[in-house]
Amino acid sequence: MTVDELKTSIQIILRTLRVDYKETSLIKDVSFQFIVEEFGAIISGINRADYKIVKDTVELQFKDWRLSYFTTFDNVNEIKEAIVWELMKGGYMRWVRFNYPRQFNNLIAMEGFGRKIIDQRLKLYGDKPKYRFLIEDNEDAKKSADAYILSIDPGFYDSMPEEE
Description:
Layout: H1 3-16, E1 22-24, E2 31-36, E3 41-46, H2 51-61, E4 66-71, H3 76-89, H4 92-99, H5 101-110, H6 113-125, H7 132-141, H8 146-152
Helix pairs in contact: 1-3, 4-5, 6-7
């Protein structure tokens, strides 16, 4: 895919997720950035060859933001998942659950993000003892239907832990 196709794909993902964003390009003709202020995220698209230059520039300009980098070689479905994970760390799922309940239900049930969220959490928790309860809670949730989980704990899918 080209840089323009990558940019279009990410714009479509952000619109589908119903988040507001601003567009900029810190290094013209090399990269682009989408600034999602509500959730403190910067989503950068780059050509793989220019990664180091772009990463250094973005980190300098956007200190203390959640930074994501995608290249023209990345898979669009994986890009969407990674964007959702970053937005979730800033409260996206809670926001979408309250503001766009149909969108939330579609993400969780129809697009299968309920299971993906659980799997991603378990991946981040690893086998660390400090996450024992959370690991057990998520493993138990894997045994239940998304609708049941939402009926007993509507906020179950609201958060994603930060990576260590």
